[in-house]
Amino acid sequence: MIPTAAIAQETLREIPLWPNGAPGFESRRNEPAVARDYWIANIHNPSITIYLPPKEKATGAAVVICPGGGHRLLVFNAEGDEPARYLASLGVTAFALKYRLGRQEGSPYSIEKHAREDGQRAMRLVRSRAREWNLDPNRIGMMGFSAGGEVVSMVAFGSGIPDVNATDEIDRVDSRPNFLIMVYPGPLGIPDVVPANAPPAFLLVANDDECCSPPILKLLQRYRDAKIPVEAHIYAHGSHAFNMGKRSQLLSIKGWPQRLADWLADNHLLDAR
Questions:
Q1: How far is 183 from 180, CA to CA, in rounded Å?
Q2: Cα 123 from Cα 138, distance rounded (Å)
Q3: Predicted pLDDT of residue 1
Q4: Which residues contact 142 (CB under 8 A, 6 or more apart)?
Q5: Cα dihedral 207, 212, 213, 216 in deg (nearest 10)
Q6: Contact of 7 with 88, CB cutoff 8 Å
Q7: Quick one: average pLDDT of 68-85?
Q8: What is the mean pLDDT of residues 130-134?
Q9: What does each C-alpha distance from 84 to 30, 67, 95 come to in angstroms?
Q10: Cβ distance 210 to 217 under 8 Å?
Q11: Do 78 and 148 meet the contact criterion of CB atoms below 8 Å apart?
């Protein structure tokens, strides 16, 4: 694990997306989440956890991270905390999102409405506080693993246009990410046509991932058709849910985070602000 010293001491604050609770579900904001081993569920008060890099390393770039878990739980340790710490070690401010789960048993939430809403709100919240966290509002991306990639797709390829008449000033901020990092994303939200204003993307999957290699192949071709910058890494083996690669015995999978760091650097996202 990346040592705690790689992130600033004032980090790991958790901030609710809505101070009074999610719209329509304000009465449930005080219900506690359930955490077991590697996962978190029972999310009724969606939030972001902040991972600030040390000031001397901070680049001004930021990423909102959406963990996977099939919309039944969040694989928060391996697909929220670990990638956030890795990004912070590169100088990127990271925000691990806890979004509402549409497939958890007894859930009152819809993936298409509430998970999307949480992803949009997270982007708007981060961008609205860019000055406070010393961020460049034009270098704020999203990263999604598996089901979290579906949340990213719904945010990135939908309309991010803000409501300029909204009473909540955060809702007046654009929610569209400036770049995407898609790690074995699920199929929901993959557009038939990548829009002309789609952000550049880093795509990664194992070829033997029956669930989530097809979405990557579709995205790659549709990005190429749209002539929007895209980089894809399709590994021969690795299956699904290899997270940041640490549990794998495959050298290629263990080394994939360095490919991401290279892409971030080549796209000037690690340049000092």
A1: 10
A2: 12
A3: 41
A4: 63, 64, 65, 66, 119, 123, 152, 155, 156, 177, 179, 180, 181
A5: -140
A6: yes
A7: 98
A8: 96
A9: 26, 11, 7
A10: no
A11: no
Q: Which two tokens stand for residue 21?
A: 């609770």
**pTM of the predicted structure, to 2 decimals:** 0.95
| pLDDT per residue as tens digits for the range 96-111 | 999 999 999 999 999 9
Q: How far apart are CA 251 and CA 249, in angstroms?
A: 6
- Here the tokens at position 156 are 């990135």
H-helix segments, 143-239: 147-156, 213-226
Residues in the chain: 273
Tell me how many degrees the CA angle 269-190-49 measures, rounded to the nearest 5: 50
Rounded Cα–Cα distance for residues 8 and 221 (Å): 39
User: Among 89, 159, 76, which Cα is nearest to 123's?
Assistant: 159
Q: What is the pLDDT of residue 6?
A: 59
Rounded distance, CA 128 to CA 193, Å?
29
